[in-house]
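Q: Hi! First time doing this. I have a protein sequence and I read that you can turn it into a structure. Is that right? Here it is:
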Amino acid sequence: MDKVVATAAEAVADVPDGATLAVGGFGLSGVPNVLIQALFEHGTSGLGVVSNNCGAMDSGLAVLLAAGRIARVTGSYIGANKEFARQYLAGELEVELIPQGTLAERLRAGGAGIPAFFTPAGVGTQVADGGLPWRYDGRGGVAVVSPPKEVRVFDGAEYVLERGIRTDFALVRAAKGDRHGNLVFNKSARNFSPPAATAGRVTVAEVEELVEPGEIDPDAVHLPGVFVQCVVALTPEQAAAKMIENRTVSRPTAGRSVGA
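A: Yes, that's right. Below is the predicted 3D structure, encoded as structure tokens:
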């Protein structure tokens, strides 16, 4: 039952070229940076990644993306990642963009053993009708487009069929975990991490605080250990290394000094 391994390198050693990965995190919150760096150092390439976004500020999945290790991205947000946009428009990267709620539900459904479900999100758009550019040809044209999806009427309203997502591996970061793989996530890091973890056939978790079995109240567990096959305990330095995507400060009120 002890699922702890000594290093991140050991944890990702079995991830082969061409594997599919579900990766947790939301923005810069809860991104498994240590495991991603270990994958980079291992040299794994040709990856198919399922994640809300593909890294930012040269961190997270952006490390693999910049090195040309990612072949396909299934996600919902490109954001300010200029290299992501460049590779996509240049035809170097295949991208399936999905409404954010649909992405979360496709991961959750896959992890729950549900092969498909109907949702109103995307009805009447290219999400349902097909034609979204998945890959450009590098010359301004489109090489691969999304196929049309089944649309069905329930109670007078149209719904589009979406497939559940399963991946070969999942990588997540948790605030706390025990040796059995039970995990607790912190705030917005909980948005995509639990469904991503359930979608992976083999799930690896890096944890900021490793505790012994029984130290986490069962009612406080966000992801049961049955979904986790491998746990890596971060060092205090690794756990504390957290970036701020957009730092903002307030201007002092006119006529008042700071601290007045």
